[in-house]
């Protein structure tokens, strides 16, 4: 099949394509080809704050004290933020050619920036007793991991009747 294009005046192509492997083009005046350019820009920002607070009966006990309750507030505060920015430019070419013509449009990514961050502060940090508790937790970490691993081996977690093995370092 032959594609026939007959234009009695100027042929004006703006960001358009005439593509065919069997093309007959009859233009009586000028052929004017113009690229079509457009840009895309987006920007987003986010901010989040969450906090938990435990006191009184909800407090955990201090390890190694025979069950003595913590006297300082527990919990943590987390601040999260994010920023995203993207910009691109696209050019759609005015093209006359065969079906195998490859350059009908091009996109140029000019800018792409993403940032996400968060900061969590343990409320125990604000008191001497709390900082001592954090230090105890840190120094007892290897023993606690060993205890968790041994507990998992003795009493595996079961979901739907199947045992799941949980590995701790």
Q: What summary fits the major beta sheet?
A: 3 strands, antiparallel
The percent range for strand residues is: over 45%
Q: Please, what is the oligomeric state? A: single chain
Going by helix content, strand content and strand pairing, the class is alpha/beta
Helical run tally: 2
**SSE string:** EEEEEEEEEHHEE
Total count of strands: 11
Poorly predicted runs: none
Q: Indicate the percent of residues in helices.
A: 10-25%
Net shape = elongated
Distance between termini?
Answer: 70 Å
Taking all Cα atoms into account, the compactness measure Rg is 34 Å
Characterise this structure.
- By secondary structure, the chain is α/β, with parallel strands linked by helices.
- The protein folds into 2 domains: 35-123, no CATH class; 127-169, no CATH class.
- It contains 2 helices and 11 strands; from the N terminus they run E-E-E-E-E-E-E-E-E-H-H-E-E.
- The chain has helices at residues 128-139, 141-154, and strands at residues 3-7, 11-14, 17-19, 23-27, 31-34, 36-54, 74-92, 95-97, 105-122, 157-159, 162-164.
- The strands form 5 sheets. The protein has a 3-stranded antiparallel β-sheet with strand order 6-7-9, with no helix packed on it.
- The radius of gyration is 34 Å and the shape is elongated.
- The termini are far apart.
- 2% of the residues are buried.
SSE map:
Layout: E1 3-7, E2 11-14, E3 17-19, E4 23-27, E5 31-34, E6 36-54, E7 74-92, E8 95-97, E9 105-122, H1 128-139, H2 141-154, E10 157-159, E11 162-164
């Amino acid at each position: 099949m032959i594609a026939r294009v007959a234009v009695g005046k100027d042929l004006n192509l703006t960001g358009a394509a005439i593509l065919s492997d069997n093309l007959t083009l009859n233009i009586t005046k000028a052929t004017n080809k113009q690229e079509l350019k457009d840009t895309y820009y987006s920007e987003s920002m986010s901010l989040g704050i969450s906090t938990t607070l435990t006191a009184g009966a909800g407090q955990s006990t201090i390890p190694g004290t025979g069950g003595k309750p913590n006297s300082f507030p527990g919990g943590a505060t987390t601040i999260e933020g994010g920023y995203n920015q993207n910009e691109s430019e696209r050019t759609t070419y005015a093209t006359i050619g065969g079906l195998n013509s490859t350059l009908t449009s091009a996109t140029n990514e000019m800018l792409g920036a993403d940032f996400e961050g968060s900061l969590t502060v343990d409320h125990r940090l604000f008191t001497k007793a709390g900082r001592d508790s954090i230090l105890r937790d840190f120094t007892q970490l290897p023993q606690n991991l060993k205890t968790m691993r041994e507990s998992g081996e003795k009493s595996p977690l079961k979901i739907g009747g199947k045992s799941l093995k949980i590995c701790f370092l």
